[in-house]
Specification:
Chain lengths: 509, 333
């Protein structure tokens, strides 16, 4: 191939350099003076926890965000990425975890959307589109028919199409954002073959993954981000996994959290070999009165799905659930609420609150049977209930009858949590309770969770943030790919153990 | 609340109840109704007559009966376009029963029963099988009226018992017709159901955010099932009134009513996107549409012009709130 010449180029000449990149959002410094360098024919792994700033960097690199400070050099020339087209022109393309393609269009249309070869009359030259798509797919050693519709393909095949699309615009810098999250081992191997072929063609690849074994298998360089800062980078061959994990989590977290040690009561809730057809299987744990059980794992490990199933949203195919020693079957959220189990969902606007309805109607919604008399609403009771929780949380609102959608994110979260506490639950399941909340409100939410546990509530808290999990939990259940990767007691918790368990490296090191 | 002075006090409501009432869609609609009333009385010397006005109510009472149930359905984010076809099928069943000598009580029971049955078919398809209601009810619309056409062809059923005429032609007191009383009672029942019960609150929650409603323990499918049955039931009741008033049944009975019912609901301030609106608005919208069509009738305006007018009314009421909102935001930014 002609492009093998690229290998002979000086390997010291970087294809892309980002220098001193900073980006702030209201309340958060997402990236703080970050450097990263990509070389032709090399794979650079970008490693970091959720919230470390990886996706912000990807968005700057693809022209979706503009950086506040810093410069981007392509082939040594400073380049401005003002919009997505600038990034494409500079040869940058991104393949996302969930590929952004069009289900109802054909494979060839997906590959050439926006830059299809035209005929003399300015119409799309379908013959050329299909032929070039076929050639591209062949070069990736795939025999997908370019004329079939995308929705008939598997996830791995969709990735291939996304890669073909990237190659069709002659991209030189390919960003892969957790490309293996939804792939089987066999498909991952196929993907790695493709990546190796891209390397020999001189492309620079930024590979974002949580999985260390994959990183070591495919990457040449590494860059570790933590809290928006680049904390380490270099040749992967020169560092061990332990060092990378330390770079990733390296901070002491315990003292920042108001976890109050309280005497745990008897076991109130027990889950045994709980199994779902696709999302998780064989999960077992026990929950005691006043206990906070953290559930840690990567995005897609099945944590939210487990919690939603316990709340009756989806039906399990096997396993037992015991409440106060008695076996129960939860068939719907309504039954869960009556049993004293409530779930505060991750997505406030979508699952948590009815944004158009007033605050007081949101808070009373799951408790209507208590605020009403023989099916008839009693507004005074609803307002009293709403006022109780509004005052407890110091809610900032003009009136209890304004729509929840008019409140700020933090105040919406207060309404949602208030709504669930108003049902007087015994077991509270919190899914990412501090997601999207500024640092100050986070501390308030944490203090409040401790207070509730002190009042005898049993709490299950799903979180992707290690400090939160480690600071708040009595015990931690780690999930990996739908399976339990162990339950860890508070005394034995360490960031390294949790990350290893979640990423599948418990046996190594 | 002086004991908890360190906590901020949040009032229940903003502004006074009078100021909210003044700014509502219902108030606007009421003004429109009054204007049309005045225009009608100026346009025709025959309009301001107690019996004339009583006659005018027949233009909307039957449709309004269905519109109340339809309002609940649309607030919940669904729609039933088969209501006029349900009338046709229910009326055909009543006619067939009358031919075999069934008494008035039996005929009424059959009419209401067929309505409820048709509503249940819709309910099973939409709430049970979770199919989109607009497609399902377009299908059942053809189905129900199709059965009517097969049974009747170009014939008509007549020969209803004399006492059956009361439901569409009888008067409870002076000029107050049975239908008008039925309309008024239904309006009250539906207003209480939607605005004063847990059931009504849950309808709003579902229409605004079905996910959040489900996560709040609301049995979404169960409520939608009930609403489709209720709409079928009200269509059955409307079929009894209409058949009784006309005294005969043709398969083309109540043709196109589904659009007039939807227009009435939307004109009444019920958002076609679901989640908002009040029964009071539908009541006033009924009067507005009845007065307009009756006024145009007095002026000898042909039926086709009336349907053009209904169409314009529908477009205007859907567009107006959106345009106003856009205008306001445009000014603000």
């Amino acid at each position: 191939m002609t492009q093998t010449v690229a290998l002979e180029q000086s390997p010291e000449m970087p294809l892309l350099e980002m220098r001193g990149i900073s980006k702030s959002f209201p309340g958060v410094k997402a990236l703080n003076n970050v450097d990263i360098t990509l070389y032709p024919g090399k794979v650079t792994a970008l490693i970091g926890e959720n919230g470390a700033g990886k996706s912000t960097l990807v968005k700057i690199l693809t022209g979706i965000y503009a950086c506040d400070e810093g410069e981007i050099l392509v082939d040594g020339n400073p380049t401005v990425f003002a919009n997505a087209q600038d990034a494409i022109d500079a040869g940058v393309t991104a393949i996302h975890q969930e590929t952004v393609l069009f289900d109802e269009l054909s494979v060839a249309e997906n590959i050439f959307l926006g830059h299809a070869p035209k005929s003399r009359f300015g119409l799309v030259n379908w013959k050329a589109v299909n032929a070039r798509a076929l050639a591209l797919l062949h070069s990736l050693e795939s025999n997908i028919d370019p004329r079939i519709r995308l929705k008939d393909l598997s996830i791995a095949q969709r990735h291939l199409v996304a890669i073909a699309r990237a190659l069709s615009v002659d991209a030189r810098i390919v960003i892969m954002d957790e490309p293996t999250a939804a792939l089987s081992r066999k498909e991952v191997d196929d993907l790695f073959q493709i990546i190796n072929r891209l390397k020999t063609n001189g492309k620079a690849i930024l590979f974002i993954s949580h999985k260390f074994d994959e990183v070591y298998e495919i990457a040449d360089h590494y860059a570790v981000f933590r809290d928006g800062k680049a904390v380490g980078s270099g040749e992967l061959a020169e560092v061990g996994q332990d060092e990378i994990v330390k770079l990733m989590v390296g901070r002491s977290v315990e003292h920042a959290f108001p976890k109050v040690d309280i005497a745990l009561g008897e076991t109130v809730f027990a889950v045994e070999s709980y199994t779902h057809p696709t999302e998780f299987r064989d999960i077992s744990f026990e929950l005691r009165k006043g206990e906070i059980l953290g559930i840690y794992g990567l995005v897609g490990a099945g944590r939210s799905e487990l919690c939603q199933s316990l709340f009756g949203v989806t039906k399990p195919t096997g396993g037992k659930v015991r409440l106060n020693g008695k076996e129960i079957a939860i068939g719907s959220p309504g039954e869960a609420i009556s049993a004293g189990i409530v779930y505060v969902p991750e997505e406030r606007g979508r699952h948590g609150a009815v944004l158009q309805l007033p605050i007081y109607q949101n808070i009373s919604l799951p408790s209507l049977t208590r605020t009403s008399r023989s099916g008839f609403l009693r507004a005074a009771e609803e307002f009293a209930l709403a006022r109780k929780y509004a005052e407890r949380f110091d809610l900032r609102a003009a009136a209890l009858s304004v729509p929840v959608g008019t409140l700020s994110g933090g105040n919406q979260q207060k309404v949602v949590i208030g709504k669930w506490l108003a049902t007087q639950p015994n077991i509270l399941i919190l899914d990412e309770p501090t997601k999207g909340i500024d640092i100050g409100s986070k501390a308030a939410v944490h203090a409040f969770i401790s207070e509730l546990a002190g009042e005898g509530l049993s709490i299950i808290m799903v979180s992707s943030e290690l400090p939160e999990i480690m600071g708040m939990s009595d015990r931690v259940l780690v999930m990996r790919e739908g399976l339990s990767a162990g339950i860890y007691e508070r005394e034995t918790l360490s960031a390294e153990t949790l990350v290893r368990a979640a990423t599948g490296n418990a046996s190594k090191s | 609340m002086s004991t908890v002075s360190e906590k901020r006090h949040i009032p229940d409501q903003l502004g006074t109840s009078a100021s909210r009432l003044f700014a509502s869609w219902e108030t606007f609609l009421l003004c429109v109704a009054v204007l049309i009333f005045i225009a009608n009385s100026l346009a025709s010397p025959y309009f301001l007559n107690a019996w004339n006005l009583s006659d005018a109510t027949f233009n909307f009472t039957e449709k309004a009966l269905i519109a109340f149930a339809m309002a609940l359905l649309i607030i919940a984010g669904e729609i039933d376009l088969s209501v006029a076809a349900i009338i046709a099928l229910a009326s055909t069943a009543m006619g067939a029963a009358a031919q075999t000598g069934v008494g008035t009580f039996g005929i009424v029971l059959i009419g209401i029963g067929v309505g409820l049955g048709c509503g249940t078919v819709n309910a099973i398809l939409v709430a049970g099988l979770r199919l989109p209601s607009i497609v399902v009810t377009i299908g059942t619309m053809s189905l129900f009226r199709g059965i009517s056409y097969i049974v009747l062809g170009d014939k008509a059923y007549g020969g209803y018992p004399a006492s059956f005429a009361y439901f569409g032609q009888g008067y409870v007191f002076w000029v107050i017709s049975f239908e008008f009383v039925l309309f008024a009672v239904s309006a009250c029942i539906f207003a209480v159901l939607l605005h004063a019960t847990n059931f009504g609150r849950r309808i709003y929650a579902i229409g605004n955010n079905e996910f959040a409603a489900r996560f709040s323990g609301i049995h979404v499918e169960r409520i939608k099932f009930i609403l489709f049955m209720l709409t079928g039931l009200m269509s059955g009741i409307a079929a009894v009134c209409l058949t009784s008033r006309l005294g005969s049944t043709r398969p083309s009975i109540a043709q196109g009513w589904e659009l007039e019912v939807v227009t009435m609901v939307v004109l009444g301030g019920i958002s076609i996107l679901g989640g908002s609106g009040r029964v009071g608005g539908v009541v006033i919208a009924g009067f507005v549409m009845g007065l307009v069509t009756f006024g145009l009738g007095l002026l000898n305006v042909p039926g086709i012009v009336m349907s053009i007018f209904i169409g314009l009314l529908l477009i205007a009421t859907i567009t107006l709130p959106i345009l106003i909102r856009r205008f306001r935001y445009g000014r603000a930014s």
